[in-house]
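Standup notes
- DV: blocked on the single-chain target, sequence here:
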Amino acid sequence: MIPVSVKLAWREINSAWSRFLFLFLCIALGVGAIVAVDLFAVNVEQVILGDTRALLGGDVEVSWRRAISDKSRRVLDSLTDRDILLSHVTELAAMATVNSPNSQTPLTKTASQLVELKAIDAAYPLYGLLVVEPDLPTAELLDPLQSGCARSPCFGALAQESLLIRLNLTIGSELRIGQASFLITAVLKKEPDRIANGFSLGPRVMISREALEATALVQTGSRIQERYRLSISDATSLEPLMGELRGRLSQEGAQVSSFRDAQPRLRRFLDQLNLYLGLIGFTILLVGGIGVACTIQGFLTQKIPIIATLKTLGADSSQIIRLYLTQSLFLGGIGSLLGAMVGVALHRGLPLLLQGIIPETMPMNPTVAPIMRGIVLGILATLAFSLWPLLAIRHVSPALVYRQTVDHSQAMANTQSRLTRWRTILKHWWNDRTQVMVSVSMIAGVTGLAMWQAHSLTLGVFFSGACVVAILLLLGGTGVLYKILRHVPVPQRYLLRHAVKNLQRPGNFTKAMTLAIGIGVMLMTTLTIVERSLLDLRGHQIPSQAHSFFFIDIQPDQHPQFVRVLQQEFPDSPYELVPVVRSRLTAINGQRIDPEAHKGQRNGWYFTREYVLTTSRDLPKDNVLSQGQWWDHTKESTSDGATQTSYNLPLVSVEEDAAKNLGLTLGSTLTLDIQGVPFVAKVGSLRQVDWSSFSMNFFMIVEPGSFDGAPFTYIATTRVPTTLEVPLQQAMVAVMPNVTAINVGDVLENIGRIFRQLALGIQALALLCLVTGAVVMIAAISINRYRRLHELAIVKALGGSRRLLVFSLGVEFGVIGAFAGLVGIGLGCLLSWSLLYFFFDLIWTFDLIVLSTGLLLTILLTLMTGFLGTYRLLGFPPLSVLRQE
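- DV (later): unblocked, structure below
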């Protein structure tokens, strides 16, 4: 048998469903955002976990950031006797050149492009599929060629289409890389072990291992990545094999990982992206929840006579609350279903906004679990935000059946008065056990939903706390606005006075409208300021004297040649040339570092990264000593006038943040692996480094003479006018093919492109939050449409014209928009400052144009939304309205 409460709820919905339209929209937008993000997260997980062996390139990968030793090679070769397949891949940055017939000078007769070179063997790929066009066997495409190149040796090469576009090439065109020539035999469409093409130094070029040797690019101290992929049989256990390799290669600086750890950086990046998008989606649901509360409260206000009648007929408060709660949950369920459909539609568009950052082959098929999760969240949000206004039913007196006109308005006035007396509210709240339980349950529910969405207890609590602080500040700010309006002189003009008084009249939803609009503005302001600050790194925050080029892998015997080309061809260009040695940290204070123990930790990369060491007699110009002394002060005089050193180990100066994360202090010892040879040094000083100078800065600098005889190369920087950047790059590659030229501007532009794409996707959801706030505002206006219609009819009857009414409404909505904009922008500035200062280590700058534009757009949005919700009310004849009273 159907309960009476369900029957009555259905009758209410059936007779007045249009009044709940905004409840549908508020829930639908919030659920839609959450479903879209969750579907996106599931699709990403499917890509990462769908074929993890292909992503890694094997069951196990052993990698080095230098050429491997003979001992390591013997260890790997011994694995072939155990039915284990090996594939050897080498990756490095290189310069690709093509003939430029329009050149004016011999040194610039080629056009050049920085590429990411990948040398593969015949076993590649062990898993997955390499897609090329035309579809021919890889070995055939990469084999040595007897003809077709102007110079020998000549090999085939696979190139990404972007390289062909940049250098105006086609299949069959010739490239020069290092000391070898290549014919482009196919276009590289997809690599199984390269899931996304977000940040890269340049287009991919794939060659054979034989061709790599012919290029002569791999020399002592070259920056390379050696990867050995292993495919094991079912009879071989994975974990014992990994333990064996880590033990046998523990002294060789190798990193051993399995397919279960495939693409850790991409996984971490996408997890964080899903988290940020998910929290924005949850914020949209919270804003929608405010709209639900406004809708329920306004609906109950109109139903007070019916509630009083039901109580007169014997219904108690709990039965009536169940009636309207059933009604709210039913409507919330319908809104959640509608939101699920909206989420599927948004899910289709999100990858378009993030194109170039996420995998191109990511599936777009909706799955059931995220949709059901979103529907449940929508229903729970409806429950949480409906209970609070429904508790007011307990205070409705049956006597209002006979005194509804007088007592209703007086009750609303008394309620408004109590809201301004905080002590009375707290006392009343504390004495009402039901209200305390509902309040605690509501807070716990919202916090639980946040933790569920964030997949983190700490982050969920922090996010909920931040939302509470933002809501309290917005509500407190609205209270301050009321106080200001009560104490400012009353405008003489009636319509101004009417508009100002309307903001604080009983039954108005000014606070709800301010809250909904303010949160959306806060999100948009935060994202805009952070985006502009990061993108401005390429322009305003790059010093005018910053270097425009970095040159790496300059061999010791090429040092004079590099200087000669610069001085002869670009005599006015300042340059800096320093020796570097690549190393890995293996021990601190004699305690060996286990790379596996630091995987997944926030600052674990300090322990696992490659450290580029240099030596310098003087303190670099962009460095400031924070502790210790430089080399010039490390010698002490003895009593007989001779000097003796106060140390036995070479000294190293460490950047301050690196020292903090590594747990280093003055006197700590470091053991670094340099091409398989241990190098022990003692920390002699700590430095603050200005990384924003874009000069050559290092985490570690050792004193002169410390690594004499070590296999070192040179890194150089120089600054040339923009018009000379291409000639400089071409000139260097023409005489030193092995040297890699990195254009700082191109790298920053690539980073900027990625961030702009990310910001586009995030801002799309933030804009949806603002739209949800606008819907809440329309809902608040529509709830009071009958009272506002009555007021407008009276003004019309007293002689007010449509123009004057529009002016009055414009003032009211404009004040709401201006105030919500000011508070939201203020909170956005505070939040963006926190993000820039604590997470990005950047200086927050006051951008008057951005903030002013944001405020004006907020006012315009509020005006448009307000008039959209009231324009139909202006057309009603006053007589027809007043006759109903």
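- Follow-up: Confidence is low (pLDDT under 50) at residues 103-108, 405-419, 635-646.
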